[in-house]
Amino acid sequence: MSLKNLKKLILIISSFSIIACSQNNGGSSKASSDSLAYLKGGEGEWVLKVDDFAINQTNFNKDLQASLILQGATEDQVALYVNDANTKQLYADQLINSILLINKAEAEKFFETEEAKDFINLSIRNIKFQYYVTKLLADASKNIPDPTPEQAQAFFEQAKPQLAQMYGITAYNTETSHIVAQLYKNAYAEQLVQRDIQDLKDKAVIERNTTVLGESSVLPPQIGNTNATGLPQQGASNTIIPQQNTNDGLLPRSNN
């Protein structure tokens, strides 16, 4: 991952920390000590101090790990980035911003406004959904066989524009082959999760009040469009999905 993409990742995950810290059970504003209590203290040496608020190693590392996992980082990537000085410094910067802004907002009773409560409730629902889907994707990816070199090469050719835009991968070679293979597995895992979501929808009793909603003139989104299911986006509107209607053997064999 390039430093540019890493900075984008840290900015995204820090926004989730701000939303999570702002959650409250009864709808009323919490004191800052409550909102940020899960971060304060911990074991090991102190990592960050903001006025009288100190974060120690265990709490800092757990928060960083959770943020990376929420964004779909693999176990290997988490292990790499939690020990990377640039990542930790960038995340520390964002935590400083979070702590200072949340304290200021709560002093102003900002989170007591109806607009803020609505936004926080929506954000919490989306984060819960995204976290669960992220875990489903990770579990599904572990059970997918590694692609053959021919399958990975074909996947690269098929998804070349998206791979270049989203990951900076412009060539398939010994340096990028393992990354392409993992992205291939991730893409197939996404298909499996989308299939499970569609299965849940097929079994559920769902009604739409078109008198209120109105009649849609747009065709229903097709499976494979992450915007249709709300699967976590990876920074671009194009989805890297091996096509299922081709005979080129891109997908690994699976009984799922």
Secondary-structure blueprint of this entry?
Layout: H1 3-21, H2 32-35, E1 46-50, E2 53-56, H3 57-70, H4 75-81, H5 85-107, H6 114-142, H7 149-158, H8 160-167, H9 177-203, H10 210-213, H11 226-229
Antiparallel strand pairs: 1-2
Helix pairs in contact: 1-3, 1-5, 6-9, 7-9
> How would you sum up the global shape?
flat
Q: Whole-number average pLDDT?
A: 77
What order do the helices and strands follow?
Answer: HHEEHHHHHHHHH
Largest sheet: 2 strands, antiparallel
How much of the sequence is in beta strands?
Answer: under 5%
Radius of gyration: 21 Å
Q: Could you explain how this protein is built, in words?
A:
This protein has eleven helices and two strands; from the N terminus they run H-H-E-E-H-H-H-H-H-H-H-H-H. It has a two-stranded antiparallel ribbon. Helix 1 crosses helix 3, helix 6 crosses helix 9 (about 175-205) and helix 7 packs across helix 9 (about 175-205). With about 260 residues, the chain is mainly α.
Write a compact overview of the structure shown.
By secondary structure, this protein is mostly helical.
Which key phrases capture this entry?
single chain; 256 residues; mainly alpha; two-stranded antiparallel sheet; 11 helices; 58% helix; disordered N terminus; disordered C terminus
